[in-house]
Design brief:
The complex is a heterodimer. Chain A is built from twelve helices and ten strands. Chain A is of the alpha/beta class. Chain A has a single domain, classed as Dihydropteroate synthase-like (TIM Barrel, Alpha-Beta Barrel). Chain A starts with a helix and ends in a 19-residue tail after the last helix. In chain B, the strands form four sheets. In chain B, strands 10-9-8-7-6-3-12-11 form an eight-stranded parallel beta sheet. Chain B has a five-stranded mixed beta sheet with strand order 13-15-14-16-17, sandwiched between helices. In chain B, helix 5 (about 150-165) packs parallel to helix 6 and helix 10 (about 295-310) runs parallel beside helix 11 (about 320-335). By secondary structure, chain B is α/β, with parallel strands linked by helices. Chain B folds into three domains: about 10-65, Electron transport complex subunit B, putative Fe-S cluster (3-methyladenine DNA Glycosylase II, Chain A, domain 3); about 75-335, TIM Barrel; about 350-470, Rossmann fold. Chain B has 17 helices and 17 strands. Classes of the chains: A alpha/beta, B alpha/beta. At the A-B interface, helix 2, helix 9, helix 11 and helix 12 of A face helix 3, helix 8, helix 9, helix 10 and helix 11 of B.
């Protein structure tokens, strides 16, 4: 518990380099003229038919006011029946693990950043992605980790020390039978190495093959007994009972992943509840990139959180987002006409805007990639939850501001 | 979740008040069909000529009240391009849909050199980004008087309106400045920015005299904002837009909270004093002159994105960097997509690279997300191929197979209507891995040989490469 309270102090300190340093290289990047491939497709979007013109409402003429007519403003607060479960990730020595710090997410009783109703008990956690094998990465991301791409322990250490990762997401992509087909034993070894390199909690990702992931998760769960790892993830096409039993037996927690469907999220949770307590489950309803389905991701998350607060017992879990998916948008990585700016800026702002949008939908756990995006989201969370009064005098004269 | 009667309006309730003559003048088969369209906001009351007659006056008034959005729609401008802001029916997009995408205005000042001014105005007007069949654009010019010189402001407003069709926002807290701007923009119905606790009376007179909408500015003071709205309404100004102040940095939490409270008050409590469009000003981040411009721009994009998600109906921005505007206009498009309609692309035959008669043929669904993912995988893998987009009624491959919207017959029909048999010599069709169970039926109904592709389209480039090395037997 002591470790947890320290966590909040740590957040207020500005650690790591400044935003500009994280973005610095863009100025050196050579721009090439590349025509953007433009799709000729048409969407079937019917424009909103707008609203009818004002009706002539006949009211008795009133004397014009000569001074401000004072009325009150009452904050429109609501009652919520539900509460989001709290999930703790990582375990210290006294708790049966080896972590120097732990994090807790969830516990909300109000929608995200409705300060007029109340604050969340835990700030969202920012984690960084680390891969166990060299994978293709977008250039603006790669340039920060180029020298550690084949050393997950060193990569994890950099993510924590330099970029402020509160949790490291170790993605065991090499276990993929179609890639290196790394054995569960070897994969566990990598997990152990990373556990030794950093003292923050770990999240363990698989390769997406439900059979192989399960085999590896079972082995890793056993080897890292008591560490309270966050397994990423259990899906409906997995042997759910077996996965949940391993997670329970060795004291870990899990992400329940579904594809943008509230009913499927509920179904998966129901099946997990047969084995796991609520406090062991985080939900991920899928993150799509800005421009590539972010509207679906945003709305599913917003609906999930509101339904949970209104009392839906099957959705009352902290939410996780694979925000790194933002890099799937071509605008994030493609060389475009110079008017759209260098991708060294476009990429990280893409990840940032994707994250900020989902932050407002209520995400508790972000899996991210670019250090500048991580820093911006961290600063924004601090600003959104700051208890200091807004100083409106600073902007009162914006109209005449010289820029 | 927030139950407002507006969104739960039933077509029956509307139908009861319509003339029930089934005259078809509105273009619908009958009054019930028209009522359904009204409830879905796909038609307006004025499209029903009979209801405008005097004898239905009472019914019209009732219908008007029923259909009135809790956030009033305000129109800025009068020419070819107007900006409609507000008109929101719901707080959350999943409750219905959002109308009138957040208008984005870019600022100019009355101290800019003429060349600089005209170039910026033209650039704003010409800004366009083609995105899934739409052209994303900017919507207005905000003219700020930084000189505080009425004559100078007048000249600037004149130059701007002579050089653009975009609506304008006249920005000054000095009524004399606004008045001089209105003198030259009398017919343009500009948005007057803004009435404050100090100048509200003069601004209200100007708004009435020039029949222009009026912004109300009460930074971080919602009681004052509501009082000013009440006062101005009593004064006779009907078209208001509310600016609760955009306070960046340590003020961000309260700022976001203010916008949220205002929208909830309007949508849930139907507070008519607050039922007006909201203005956000991401431009305020430029107050820190010591900051690198890239950092201010960066912060402006972040602020704009959060205000789009949190109910701003109009944004005033400064940065004109492509990497700032691009995520902003795309986020706006995303948030304002109608969640009631599955987003679909036009079915048909698409070409990637320069395919010839030997190039492979693949198919996918016409769900936009699926299509763009597949297209992006094909493009980034440098694959040359034909791609048949089958009409799955906007569902993904998996859902369409399960829901019988994607069937072997539909695939065969798509092959026929697109005449792809004339475009390729071979008869090999690569189908999505998630439609594998249809492979036998597709072979039967189309006569083509089926090859099951990967479960995820990211595997397409590798599959095509493997096929090149080992082509399927004819």
């Amino acid at each position: 518990m002591e470790q947890e309270s320290k966590k909040d102090e740590g957040r207020k300190l500005s650690f790591g380099p400044k935003l500009f340093e994280l973005l610095a290289k863009f100025q050196e990047i050579e721009l090439e003229d590349v025509d953007l491939q433009v799709d000729e497709l048409e969407l079937w979007i019917q424009p909103g038919a707008g609203v009818v013109a004002p009706a002539k409402v006949v009211t008795a003429p009133k004397a014009k006011p000569t001074k401000i007519v004072e009325v009150d403003f009452k904050p429109p607060v609501m009652e919520y029946l539900g509460k989001i479960a709290e999930v703790k990730i990582g375990a210290t020595k006294s708790e049966g693990g080896t972590r120097g710090k732990t994090v807790t997410i969830g516990g909300e009783r109000f929608p995200a950043y409705y300060l007029f109703e109340g604050l969340m008990p835990h700030l969202p956690v920012l984690s960084l992605d680390v891969f166990d094998t060299k994978i293709p990465l977008a250039k603006p991301v790669k340039m920060h980790v180029e020298d550690v791409l084949e050393d997950p322990a060193a990569w994890a250490k950099r993510s924590v020390e330099k970029f402020g990762a509160e949790v490291v997401n170790l993605h065991l992509v090499s276990i993929d039978p179609l890639l290196k087909n790394t054995s569960p034993k070897e994969a566990s070894k990598t997990v152990e190495n990373v556990l030794q390199a950093v003292d923050v909690p770990l999240a363990i990702g698989g390769c997406g093959d439900p059979h192989k992931d399960l085999e590896v998760f079972e082995k890793v769960a056993e080897v890292a007994q008591g560490e309270r790892l966050l397994f990423n993830s259990v899906t409906l096409d997995m042997k759910i009972k077996r996965a949940a039993e391993a997670i329970k037996k060795y004291g870990h927690v899990v992400i329940a992943f579904t594809a943008m469907d509230l009913n499927k999220a509920r179904e998966l949770n129901r099946r997990l509840y047969e084995i796991l307590p609520k406090e062991h489950i985080v939900i991920d309803t899928t993150t799509a990139a800005l421009g590539y389905g972010l509207d679906y991701a945003f709305t599913v998350m917003e609906r999930t959180r509101l339904a949970a607060l209104m009392g839906d017992p099957e959705l009352q879990h902290p939410m996780s987002s694979g925000t790194t998916n933002a890099w799937a948008a071509r605008e994030a990585w493609l060389k475009m006409d110079p008017q759209w700016g260098p991708r060294e800026l476009r990429g990280p702002i893409w990840e940032t805007v994707t994250a900020l949008t989902l932050l407002l939908a209520g995400v508790d756990y972000f899996m991210m990639m670019h250090p500048a995006a991580v820093k911006t989201v961290r600063d924004t969370v601090a600003e959104l939850t700051s208890t200091s009064k807004a100083d409106a005098s600073k902007i009162a004269d914006w109209v005449t501001m010289k820029i | 979740m927030e139950s407002t009667p507006k969104k739960e309006l039933s077509p029956i309730d509307v139908y009861k008040l319509l003339p029930k003559t089934n005259c078809k003048e509105c273009g619908e088969e009958n009054c019930m069909a028209f009522a359904t369209k009204l409830v879905n906001r796909e038609a307006t009351l004025q499209q029903c000529p009979p209801i405008l007659q005097d004898k239905y006056k009472e019914a019209f008034a009732k219908l008007w009240e029923m259909l009135k959005p809790p956030v009033k729609e305000i129109v800025i401008g009068s020419g070819e391009r107007v900006a409609k802001i507000g008109g929101k029916l719901v707080m959350y997009r999943h409750e219905f849909t959002y109308f009138n995408p957040t208008a984005i205005a870019i600022d100019v000042t009355d101290e800019m050199l003429e060349d600089e001014l005209l170039k910026r105005v033209r650039d704003v007007e010409n800004f366009t980004y083609p995105y899934i069949g739409q052209n994303l654009k900017l919507d207005a010019i905000a003219i700020r008087s930084t000189s505080n010189d009425p004559e100078r402001f007048k000249q600037t407003v004149k130059k701007v309106i002579e050089n653009t069709k975009l609506p304008v926002i006249l920005c000054s807290f000095n009524p004399n400045i606004i008045k001089s701007g209105l003198l030259v923009a009398a017919k343009n119905r500009p948005l007057i920015y803004a009435a404050t606790k100090d100048n509200w009376k003069e601004m209200a007179e100007l708004a009435l005299m020039y029949d222009s909408p009026l912004a109300v500015f009460a930074p971080n003071d919602l009681k004052l904002l509501r009082s000013l709205a009440k006062t101005l309404l009593e004064f006779g100004v009907k078209d208001l837009a509310l600016d609760p102040g955009t306070v960046p940095n340590e003020g961000l939490g309260e700022t976001i909270s203010n916008y949220t409270m205002l929208r909830r008050s309007a949508c849930r409590e139907e507070d008519e004093l607050l039922g007006f469009p909201l203005i956000g000003v991401p431009l305020v981040v430029w107050s820190n002159s010591k900051e690198m411009p890239e950092i201010s721009s960066w912060k402006e994009a972040c602020l704009a994105s959060m205000l789009i998600s949190r109910y701003a109906d109009l944004l005033i921005m400064h940065s004109f960097e492509g990497w700032i505007l691009l995520p902003t206009v795309i986020l706006r498009q995303n948030i304002y997509t109608d969640p009631r309609k599955p987003v679909a692309v036009q079915p048909g035959l698409k070409m990637f690279g320069a395919p010839d008669e030997n190039s492979p043929l693949l198919f996918t669904s016409n769900f936009a997300l699926t299509y763009y993912t597949v297209a992006s995988d094909i493009e980034s893998g440098g694959v040359t191929c034909h791609l048949l987009v089958v009409d799955t009624e906007g569902l993904s491959v998996e859902s369409a197979v399960a829901g019988r919207k994607l069937t072997a017959d539909k695939v065969a029909e798509a092959i026929k209507t697109t005449k792809v048999e004339e475009k390729v010599k071979h008869r090999n069709l690569i189908i999505p891995g998630r439609a594998a169970r249809l492979s036998g039926e597709i072979e039967e109904s189309s006569g083509w040989k089926v090859l099951v592709g990967p479960l995820d389209s990211s595997g397409i480039p590798k599959l095509i490469q493997d096929l090149k090395a080992q082509p399927p037997k004819a």
